[in-house]
Write a structure and sequence with these properties.
Number of helices: 3
Distance between the termini: 64 Å
Number of strands: 9
Strand content: 35-45%
CATH topology: Lipocalin
Shape: globular
Helix content: 10-25%
CATH class: Mainly Beta
Strand order of the largest sheet: 1-2-3-4-5-6-7-8
CATH architecture: Beta Barrel
Radius of gyration: 17 Å
Largest sheet: 8 strands, antiparallel, barrel
Number of domains: 1
């Protein structure tokens, strides 16, 4: 009986891990072709859906670099004004799609991974629209602390068309320096 329970638990854990890494919102398509080398570097968060790990943060950035094993080192950073302190989370990302497809799984707490799907990206890799596994996770990123209004509107329209509640986005304060 104990072995049966272990097998069932392993199955549930496997199903959870697999399902948590396979998701992309219905109708969304990850960018292809995708060059991870061009994507590396610093990105400023322009807007995001609220979720507990970033709640209250402003001046948020994400910095991506290659690890020796080929995975991507992820450093997310933001300022929590109410505590007058910087918060930083370091994680790891790995490709889950084809090598030229912008679908990644990201972990800040191994073995748990979340989905990171680049669903819009300009040709110069300056602006990106990121979706999680469902309509609860959305980010607009830029290489600079601002984004052109035209690009922002295009990304908002794409997100609305997929069913995201863009009125719920939090517009992140970035220093104008």
């Amino acid at each position: 009986m104990k072995n049966y329970l272990k097998i069932m638990m392993a199955g549930f854990v496997g199903l959870f891990v697999f399902s948590s890494c396979a998701g992309i919102p219905k109708g969304a398509v990850a960018v292809r072709p995708f060059d991870v080398g061009k994507y590396l570097g610093k990105w400023y968060e322009i807007a995001r859906m609220d979720f507990r790990f970033e709640r209250g943060l402003n001046h948020t950035t994400a910095n991506y670099s290659l690890n020796e094993d080929g995975s991507i080192r992820v450093v997310n950073r933001g300022y929590l004004a109410e505590k007058k302190q910087w918060k930083e989370a370091v994680g790891k990302a790995k490709s889950i799609g084809r090598s030229n497809e912008a679908r990644l799984k990201v972990s800040f707490f191994v073995p748990f991974y979340g989905n990171y799907n680049v669903i819009a990206l300009d040709d110069q890799y300056q602006y990106a629209l990121i979706a999680g596994k469902n309509l609860d996770y959305l980010w607009i990123l830029s290489r600079k602390k601002t984004i052109p209004e035209k690009v922002c509107q295009e990304y908002l329209e794409l997100a609305k068309g997929l069913g995201f509640d863009t009125e719920a986005l939090i517009w992140v304060e970035q220093d104008k320096k």
